[in-house]
TrEMBL record, chain A:
Keywords: Membrane, Transmembrane, Transmembrane helix
Family the UniProt entry places it in: Belongs to the GerABKA family.
Organism field: Sporolactobacillus laevolacticus DSM 442
PANTHER family in alphabetical order: LEUCINE ZIPPER PROTEIN 4, SPORE GERMINATION PROTEIN
Presence of the UniProt keyword Transcription regulation in the record: no
Alphabetical GO biological process terms: spore germination
Pfam families recorded: GerA (PF03323)
Gene Ontology CC: membrane
Lineage of the organism: Bacteria, Bacillati, Bacillota, Bacilli, Bacillales
Residues passing through the membrane, by range: 287-309, 383-401, 413-434
Protein name from the UniProt record: Spore germination protein GerA
InterPro entries: Spore_Ger (IPR004995), UPF0353/GerABKA_families (IPR050768)
The organism's place on the tree of life at top rank: Bacteria
Automatic annotation (TrEMBL), chain B:
Cellular compartments annotated: Membrane
Organism: Sporolactobacillus laevolacticus DSM 442
InterPro entries xrefs: Spore_GerAB (IPR004761)
Residue intervals passing through the bilayer: 12-33, 45-64, 85-114, 120-141, 148-170, 190-211, 223-246, 278-299, 311-327, 339-358
Name of this protein: Spore germination protein
UniProt KW keywords: Germination, Membrane, Transmembrane, Transmembrane helix, Transport
Bilayer topology: Multi-pass membrane protein
Pfam families: Spore_permease
Transmembrane recorded as keyword: yes
Predominant subcellular localization, coarse grouping: membrane
Length: 504, 370
């Protein structure tokens, strides 16, 4: 439209500094910008930096004494004498500007000279590495990523101490120019996958990039899908495990989450703890999670369908319980379910937004008081309360938070279709979701991979986890550069366990 | 890439040679075929299943042979074979007829399923509403391409396994003496029953349409035979189950023996398993209907290359809806089923062998000319 076009044309073109003096003029308005002339006996220069961005201690202790030293006579001397490994000498104005705003020190001979020395002295402010809070685990490492990219790369690199570990850096965001790192093992990760990731990230047109999850939403294969297509995790051990497998990790500066790509749907139901347990127990937990997802999606819709259309399906013994618990409820099954589901949804959202201590209180108040009160008030039946509470619990058994919210959401289409067509509606809804999952891809790789396309070999680490000596090939879906993880025959040999026969 | 060749990202694995023909065969017929078969050959009807299966194996061999011979002339599917052997116009006409049969295949199954739904679950279910909803899902599937259709077949195969397992529940109540005396019926009556099995075995001839989409056809060959053998095994088991579960008199009166059998199954927290299974059975229907829509839309694209397949698909689905609505009652469903079976019998057992012969003949004639 007219006005929109006009608005778009009104962008400020004059504001861009043309010379270095313009730049300084512009920045001097900021109280934290230090710009002064050093007047020495042998040498004088202009020094400029942001007090809030540089490490002031370091500058005073290590940089200034050296510059003020009497051995220094020229800019070239500084470059040679200063005990810092990377000092850049440049005339590029845009580089000077961006470095200044990242926390570098700029040194010039005269104020108007474009010839500058750029000295790194970045102050890293951020929280300490803490215990995991979102993806908690009982066994295994507890470290989590923090908001600093360099610390995060350090956490990954120390788990993968090989020269083949590649860390490539890209800049994303028209204004923010946020650092984004792509981490993979050269030779194991599929080249095509790496190129796809690089291309998608570098083609990305955004103004700024706040978090890794935003990146995940922007580069996902299908933007309209409610299912997350890349795993986001805060655990460095999970990331390095995935990188060893041949996946690609993407880290964003300022984000405590790493993205792991490509991912299949089964991986969203894998907790990293599973690898620290015996395989039978780990497999059982995985199956439990799968059952939980089914329960969470189907419990209340099936209740509606049975009570509205298919009361023949309810056995005689159960009928008595149902009637006695529903006799005082004036609402239709569907209204009853919607009321209760929304109540639980409110509790969840309130619990997530409130400070921890208040949140707990709200949980107790909401869970117990509203729950029992709504039954006594005759708003819902006891039976449904149990179903809904159980399915809410079951939804959050999913280890990945984004997947858990998707699973929470899925039930609403099911509830509506159950009301419209009964079990037939549930079946339609189910088929729709399955078709949607069939069509989804993650980085061009099929999303429900071990099932379709059927790869029997990849089933070893999906719904069940077989023992480690069966895990000697990397997942086929990744098309890894090096397929075998370890020697297949040697993994089956156990040291000191050569038994030819009983008692021999 | 040569023109007309299919990119590898759109192709199916060799295993689909097993999955797709098998799931095409397994559809609505499974619920009712026992009554039809036992009409002529009573307790020996399982023999008819066996004979029908073996015959379809032979036809499968012919189909694969036909397609393999065709491979050196370009794309090896039914449409291209017709146009190569019979020229553009006659070939196009033949293509239209075979596609019409495929459309009938989809519609008959869809309509029969609605019939079952109306009888067993929702007597008031509107045919129009159901077909519209179903076709929307089919549209969503086929829009994803042959790979997604293949995926639906795969999932359908997995989901159907528990249903076959459910025949175990018949064992405690089975009268195995119902099977005796064996081989009582004359070969002629068994052959008549074997003719009736065409309806349940049809579907594997769709191989003629999606063959070029299989990645390594040589590897798929053994899977194709294995797929038909699996269907044959399932049909024989179900036939035996019905024979030992129902008495001769009951069988004559039961239209859907498999569903009636499920009705007798009950679980502690669930009664009327038949209703759950009928709804669950939608999964057996999906592959057939979506493949039929895929083939029909492909025909439009092949004949009129101007029309994109995605637009043709909408038209095809509209035809599905219209025909389904036009079929009014159970009687007409039965007529449509018979029509589908008889035309299918002709196509599979007469036309395919003829085509193989004609192809060989043309090779001789044109080979000498060249």
């Amino acid at each position: 439209m007219f006005w929109k076009k006009k608005r778009l044309e009104e962008t400020d073109k004059k504001n861009k500094p043309q010379t270095i003096m313009d730049l300084f003029q512009h920045l001097k308005e900021n109280p934290d910008f230090a710009h002064f002339q050093h007047q020495g006996d042998h040498f004088s220069c202009w020094i400029s930096f942001f007090k809030t961005l540089v490490d002031v201690d370091y500058v005073h202790r290590d940089v200034f004494p050296c510059i003020y030293d009497e051995k220094i006579h020229s800019m070239k001397d500084i470059q040679e004498q200063l005990p810092i490994e990377t000092i850049i000498r440049t005339k590029d104005l845009s580089m000077i500007q961006s470095k200044l705003l990242e926390g570098y020190i700029i040194i010039q001979k005269n104020e108007a000279d474009t010839d500058c020395l750029i000295i790194p002295s970045i102050k890293i402010e951020g929280r300490q590495i803490e215990k995991s809070e979102v993806e908690t685990s009982i066994l295994g490492p507890k470290e989590t990523f923090v908001e600093s990219l360099d610390t995060n790369i350090n956490l990954v690199r120390k788990r993968i101490p090989i020269p083949q570990l590649k860390v490539e850096e890209l800049r994303v965001g028209k204004i923010s120019r946020t650092r984004v790192s792509i981490v993979y093992i050269d030779g194991i990760a599929n080249v095509e996958n790496v190129n796809t990731v690089k291309q998608r990230i570098s083609d990305l047109e955004v103004a700024n990039l706040i978090d890794a999850t935003v990146l995940a939403l922007n580069i996902s294969d299908n933007d309209n899908s409610i299912f997350p297509q890349f795993i986001d995790t805060e655990r460095p051990d999970r990331v390095s495990g995935a990188v060893y497998e041949g996946k690609i990790a993407v880290l964003v500066d300022g984000s405590p989450n790493a993205l792991v790509m490509p991912s299949t749907i089964v991986e969203f139901f894998v907790a990293f703890d599973d690898y620290f347990l015996v395989w039978h127990i780990a497999s059982l937990y995985r199956l439990l999670r799968l059952f939980a997802v089914a329960l969470s999606a189907f419990a209340s819709p099936v209740y509606i369908a049975l009570l509205t259309y298919h009361y023949q399906l309810i056995p005689k013994d159960l009928l008595g319980t149902l009637i006695s618990s529903r006799s005082s409820v004036p609402l239709d099954p569907v209204m009853e379910v919607i009321v209760l589901e929304i109540m639980i949804e409110l509790l969840r959202e309130a619990g997530a937004r409130l400070p921890t201590k208040v949140g707990q209180t709200i949980g107790i108040v909401g869970g117990i008081v509203i729950g029992t009160a709504s039954v006594q008030a005759g708003l819902t039946s006891n039976f449904l309360l149990i179903l809904v509470a159980m399915s809410a619990l079951a939804a959050f058994i999913t280890p990945n938070y984004r997947m858990a919210t998707s699973i929470r959401f899925i039930r609403f289409p099911f509830i509506i279709s159950a009301q419209m067509l009964g079990m037939l509606g549930i079946a339609f809804c189910f088929i729709f979701f399955v078709c949607h999952l069939l069509r989804l891809t993650s980085l061009g790789r099929p999303y429900i991979e071990p099932i379709y396309p059927l790869r029997v070999n990849d089933l070893k680490d999906s719904f069940i986890r077989l023992p480690y000596n069966f895990q000697n090939t990397r997942p086929m879906v990744l098309r890894p550069g090096d397929v075998s993880r370890m020697n297949a025959t040697r993994t089956h040999k156990k040291k000191g366990k050569h038994k030819a026969d009983i008692d021999e | 890439m040569k023109p007309g060749q299919i990119s590898e990202t759109q192709q199916l694995g060799p295993m689909s040679g097993f999955i797709i023909p098998h799931t095409m065969q397994i559809s609505i017929g499974i619920l009712s075929f026992q009554q039809l078969l036992s009409k002529d050959s009573g307790q020996d009807a399982w023999l008819a299943c066996l004979i029908g299966g073996l015959f379809s194996l032979a036809i499968m061999w012919m189909i694969l042979r036909l397609l393999k011979n065709e491979q050196k002339f370009g794309r090896a599917d039914f449409f291209s074979i017709h146009q190569r052997l019979f020229g553009k116009w006659l070939g196009g006409l033949l293509n239209f007829f075979v596609t019409a049969h495929v459309v009938l295949f989809g519609v008959v199954f869809l309509r029969s399923y609605i019939e079952i739904l109306q009888v067993w679950i929702f007597p008031q279910l509107s045919v129009f509403t159901f077909t519209i909803l179903f076709c929307l899902i089919i549209w969503y599937i086929v829009l994803g391409g042959i790979r997604i259709v293949g995926g639906i077949c795969m999932l359908s195969f997995i989901y159907m396994i528990p249903l076959y397992m459910s025949t175990v529940f018949a064992v405690p109540e089975a009268y195995f003496s119902n099977l005796l005396p064996m081989f009582e019926h004359s070969p002629a009556s068994i052959l008549i029953s074997a003719f009736h099995t065409t309806h349940i075995y049809l579907g594997f001839e769709l191989m003629l349409y999606f063959y070029p989409f299989i990645k390594r056809p040589q590897l798929a060959k053994k899977w194709c035979y294995f797929g038909i053998l699996t269907s044959m095994y399932i049909y024989i088991i179900l036939m035996l189950m019905a024979t030992v579960f129902f008495s001769r008199g009951e069988m004559r009166l039961t239209i859907w023996p498999t569903v009636t059998f499920w009705k007798s199954v009950s679980f502690p927290l669930l009664e009327h398993v038949d209703m759950v299974i009928i709804i669950y059975y939608m999964w057996a229907l999906l592959p057939s209907v979506s493949m039929s829509a895929w083939v029909a839309s492909r025909f439009v694209k092949h004949t009129f290359p101007v029309i994109k397949q995605k637009y043709a698909l909408v038209g095809v689905l509209l035809i599905f809806v219209i025909i389904s609505v036009l079929i009014k009652n159970g009687e007409q469903v039965k007529i449509a089923n018979d029509l589908y079976g008889n035309i299918g019998f002709f196509i599979v057992y007469a036309y395919v062998p003829f085509l193989l012969f004609y192809q060989w003949l043309m090779k001789k004639v044109r080979g000498k000319a060249a």
